[in-house]
Amino acid sequence: MPTPSSPPSAVRAVLARDKLGTFSLLHFSLTAATPLTVIAGGVVVMFAIAGQTGIPLGYVIIAVCLWLFSVGYTTMSRHITNAGAFYAFIARGIGRVPGVAAAWVAATAYCAMQISLYGLLGLTARSVLSRMGADVPWWGCALAAWLLIGLLGTRAVDINAKVLAVLLVVEIAVILLFSASNFVNAADGLPFGVLSPNQLGGEAAGAMLALAVTGFIGFESPTVYGEEAKDRRRTVARATVATVGILAFIYIFSSWSIITAVGEDGVVAAATDDPGLMFTLAGDQLGAPWATIGEVLLLTSVTAAALSFHNTTARYLFALGRERVAPAWLGRTSPRTSSPSAASITQTVISGLVLVTWVALDLDPLVHLFFYMSTSAGIGLLALIAACAIAVVVYFARDRRGESIWAARIAPALSVFALVWVLYLSVLHFHTLLGVEKGSTLPVLVPILFAGLAVLGAAWGAYLKRCRPEVYAGIGHGAKAALVTETAEPVGVAGGR
Amino acid sequence: MPDVPSTRLVYDALLITSLDDAYKPATGPRVTGLGIGAALLAELVLSQHLAVWTAKGVDRVCLDERYRPPEDSLALWLAEHVRAERTSLAVRDWLDFLAAADVYTKTAEHMAMHGFMVRREYRSRWLKRVEVGFEPSDPLIANAVFARLRRHLSISERAIAVEDAFLLALTEAVGLSKPLYHQLPSGARVYAGKRRQALPAALRALLAHLAAAVADIAITGGR
With an 8 Å Cβ cutoff, is B211 touching chain A? Predict the structure, then answer.
């Protein structure tokens, strides 16, 4: 061990210079989330469709579930490669075959989530342009955004991160301003009743929780940078928990503020009549220009969200390509920008095809594209997080690997119970959020679709195990799959020709 | 002009990664640094100055038992860094260090000393500062390595130097597989795969770490 008087290592000094602190990781995870889209696009819709005022409480429940989950998740991330991808945790915890099944579900859910945002994006852009006197169809705006995101997706992610960071700061400032204004202009004092557990009863509670989960997606990203963190043990955990905490505060604060401004009794009707309720309130309280500012920011926020989900999906496809679980060409990078270009272009093509199909069939962008696809993706992502929680429990059940009982056993077990319960309620009440009758085909189709994907993925995993063991060995290792498949033979002391 | 030395792995890696032409793009700065760094490590492994060994599942770099200081200043710079470390560092740490320590400029300056590259200074009006760049002294030198590799692939040459087999795999690892295999027969990838498998285990380990580092940049954005 080096003594205090020993000369410092030049190599370690250079490597330490590049390490990331908690704030840097927080920056990456918060830019992956886009709060204004969740508040103005999701919360108001939840009031309208779920018909419930217990949304702030729903966010409290999901935040607690994800906090419990994060404890075990960040602990396990210290012990595995490819941390950050949920399927990698499942592959290492439960097994590679379930890992491939999870990878298929994950790629589809992220892809669907990204495509769904084009519906909201098209409508918001049309609304903003109509204020300026231009009449453009929603699909024209959506296709323009699709082209922009497709181009940005193949550029260096550095550029994207800077754009997202600026948008995020402005977004949060505006949300806090609007929310504070709502509290100042309370209709009937502070409605503490909406925080009562009774508010979460009925047929819509589960569906609302599923949609609430989607607002937190991105919280898992600090683990991606685990190897580059200053202190892998503490930095990643702090950033992940801080992300959940900050997002929870924003969502609870702003959703509660909307109820406060409109009144507990009238908020559902107001949200049903006016999907732009948040901006209408801001316009009434702060002046008309603020409504326009809010709408423009919603447009940039949805664009940022679509870009963020585009990058996440592309990275998933890229990692699967590197592992050769998916076609190997998906693992190609752009030489100039080092971005996962093939995977990014694939995601662009898929989303373009869905958009064109929706336009050709004249389907509704808000209901059929945004609502249906995002809630369906929410169910898939919730199932993925629940499966990941189980994987953490199984991983540490064999060996605690020097971790505390709380981090390796208690918190993961609690998170499994909580997340499986939320998933059960979500599937049970899914028809409510889709706005169809109980017993209809559509709410049943979505879980069946994800279950079918998981079965197909598992079958593919079993095939790889039997016929391509070298590929099977690399499952769950993502970018580092080459290390498993290429260095299967011990290096030893080697150097000769 | 000094005597022109025989071609070197690290020079070839620089020419492949950092110089673009009509059909081959240059790689991004960080990937270029990783590629040149991997080539420099491989060169020292082949010359028996360094060795790669596995301990507790981690590939580490250490001095070779037969170590004698390299005569070349670039190789000596890295070898002395390895010697200065009290404990052996992982291959990935060395790759990251070399990329961060601007191994590109060090190698390019070295090549300029030997007449392969020309150092040029550009005055940037916007940034109001002088920027240094390197250009090949002869365009033929710049293209020779890539052309040689493609020639190996097109005729599936039976016996190729271990350095060229390494460079084939390095070119793929840094993301240049598309221009490398452009319009070549489908058997070219199989041929390159076999050559890679025939490399010494230490070089294969270096290549695997290089591929993983490049993939990590794609996932994390090189932040």
Answer: yes
Beta bridge partners of B121: B132
Kind and range of the H or E run holding A223? none
Which residues does chain B have within 8 Å of residue A485's beta carbon, measured at their own beta carbons? Answer: 208
CB atoms within 10 A of CB A196: 12
Closest CA to A460 of A475, A477, A445: A475
Q: Is A339 in Cβ contact with B215 (below 8 Å)? A: no
Structure tokens at A392: 């953490």
Query: B222, A11: Cβ pair inside 8 Å?
Result: no
Q: Please list, residue by residue across A399-432, b when 16 or more beta carbons sit within 10 angstroms of its beta carbon and e when fewer do.
A: eeeebeeebbbebbbbbbebbbebbebbbebbbb
Instruction: State whether A335 and B59 contact (CB < 8 Å).
Output: no
**Strand segments (E) across A25-110:** none
Tens-digit pLDDT profile for residues A256-303:
999 999 988 888 899 888 888 899 999 999 998 898 888 888 888 888
Name all domains of chain B by residue range, CATH numbers in brackets. Answer: 9-143+200-217 (1.10.3630.10)
* Paired tokens of A446: 């979505």
Contact call for A482 and B101, based on CB within 8 A: no
Q: Does B222 touch chain A (CB under 8 A)?
A: yes
Under-50 pLDDT residues of chain B:
1-5
Question: Which chain B residues contact residue A333 at CB under 8 A?
Answer: 175, 214-215, 217-218
Give the max Cα distance, chain A: 82
**Cross-strand partners of B131:** B122
Among A5, A491, A493, A497, most B C-beta atoms within 10 A, so best to mutate, is: A491
**B100 touches A at CB < 8 Å:** yes
B203 by DSSP, 3-state: which?
helix
Contacts of A227 in chain B (CB under 8 A): 216
Q: What is the pLDDT of residues B127-174, one digit of tens each?
A: 778 888 899 988 888 888 999 999 999 999 888 999 999 999 999 999
B6 phi and psi angles, rounded to 5 deg: -65, 155
Handedness of CA A455, A458, A464, A467 (dihedral sign): negative
**DSSP output for A117-143:** HHHHHHHHHHHHHHHTT----HHHHHH
Domain ranges of chain A: 17-475
Amino acid at B148: R
Query: What ranges make up the beta strands (E) of B49-116?
Result: 50-55, 58-63, 89-90
Tell the CATH superfamily of the A17-475 domain: Amino acid/polyamine transporter I (1.20.1740.10)
Hey, is A201 helix, strand or coil? coil
Q: Which residues of B touch A224 (CB under 8 A)?
A: 219-220
Q: What does R_g of chain A's alpha carbons equal in angstroms?
A: 23
Q: Do B218 and A339 touch (CB under 8 A)?
A: yes
Tens digits of residue pLDDT in A36-54 = 888 887 788 778 877 778 8
pLDDT on residue A109: 93
Q: Which residues of B touch A23 (CB under 8 A)?
A: none
The beta-carbon neighbor of A497 closest among B26, B46, B86 is B46
Distance from CA of B1 to the nearest CA of A (A): 32
